[in-house]
Structures
1.
Amino acid sequence: MVYTRASSADQREDLERQVKRLLDYCTAKGYKVVAVLKDIASGLKTNRRNLLRLSELVAGRKVDMVVITYKDRLTRFGFEYLEHLFKKFGVRIEVVFGDEPKDAYQEPVEDLIAIVTSFAGRLYG
């Protein structure tokens, strides 16, 4: 299973590049790709159509591996939770390129966003 995501429609070329890179990777590794799921939406959105479809396939034990380019293509926050849940269904997430490269400003900004998100979750339940 290959899963890709781009944040907006103007990044459609990036989405297709992700698909090509992942399919090439899977071919080189000898993996059988049963489906390619693509979403165009923020990584913060939890109701992405194909992310939900992926969850159904995992819960239905229809796949045994999900291949993604970077962790944040699957989700901006909580990757470890999804990874843990998928493992419970015998599904491994393979991240081809690890973490997306960050500049000196991006990491502190992401940390700040994570803190604000955590507090907002506590405030609004």
2.
Amino acid sequence: MFPQKGPIKTRVDSKTYPLGEGSALPADGSALALVALSHTPLEHKIYLSMTAETRTDGCVFNARQLMALTNIRSLGTVRRGLEGLRNKLSIELLSNGNGNGFARHYCARTPEDILSRRRAMGLEMYPRELEIWEGNEFFERAMKRIVANDSLSRREAQVALCCVEGLTNAEIGNRLAVGVQTVKFHLRHIFIKFGVKRRAELISRLLR
């Protein structure tokens, strides 16, 4: 288990983790997890749909194609997700089409390429509140397992990561700017989704 650290007072945006700066590329396998942590659920659903369709760096999509792939019925929602992914350097706009926004074509980048591009832009790759664990193989293992459980909500993923850090419910609430009862609510759902009954089992499951 990790050594106890004092609580970190940084507030975490519930919609997106801040990206960091000056970090070396993570060990193989954690790149996708780091990219996932920076995406909103909508953005990551679109990103995974793009990458799952091809598994290469060359497949091109437009918003209407992504509506079909993701089963998102709102074109505006897909466009918002695409704009967020562009801002995070996760995808690239290849063409503006006919200029009306309907025929824009996008290409997804690999997680490793995304992190390299972010680093070149002076952005951090680890969420700011997790920088103390950068390069820690046990924490990266836990992070990958949390991200791999696609039934977790974004807030549940944040709470699970805080548990791995050894924070108490009160410290987690302070970190995420929520009440202790809200933390307990999320923990109950996390335990169910990982098939455990208590925090120690959860941490053991994530670190083993």
3.
Amino acid sequence: MVYSMDMRKNTLRLASVLVAVLLMSAAHAASAAHAANQPALPERSGTYDDPNHPGVKVRVFVHPERPTKTASSALVCNLADPDSVAPVSAAGWKLPAAWTYNLNPGSVPSSVGSVNLPTIVGNGFADWMAAASSHVSFTRGANTTIARQAYDGKNIIAWGRTSGQALGVTYVRYYTSTGQVVDVDTIMNKKFPWRWSNSNTCAEPTAYDAENIMTHELGHWLGLDDEYDAAYVDNTMYGYGAKGEVKKNTLTIGDVTGAMSLTY
């Protein structure tokens, strides 16, 4: 068979495309294998050594649910948004002045909506940047399909699997010697019912509001700890989350005080 010049060119183009696809597939497989081979971290709140990186600690924050009882399934509005002056404590690390995060829209429950994830996360980061007087700037990077924590150079926000009764788990990796953060991941638990009311006064009583819980998790990115005492029950950084709640969307005086006290 005699090939024309155009046919030979098309054949070369097709070969180039196939090589590129194969290289991308190999890179993806290598990345997945790397993540899969990383030892599992305990999904219990605490500080642990990173198994594969000497000199790096991992702080794990587990955000448990607070049992609530409700007889209504309708949207509840005119919810109170009480303030609190109780100052939130620093967790003990610092972020660089600029930090990039990666979203996984494909992991978002349909009840929340994948198209809403950038707004939900953007609202939370905007609140914390304002509280910290813009000492840290959070920038959205490329989307990802990763839905698990790993020390991989990507700072993931996704819905995935977490154990126990954790609404969400945030993993903060930092150098022991300097306290400098090197990797942060937040995984929201997809087994719970989720909604997004896009409101600071209305919430679904039978579901967890995505922005309400997300804003709390992003406070850990900034460098704030969980608080469990009764004085903190109205703070965004209160350690329990509840259905029918949106008050964590907005920061209290105590949350802002904690953010302003952080050193970078």
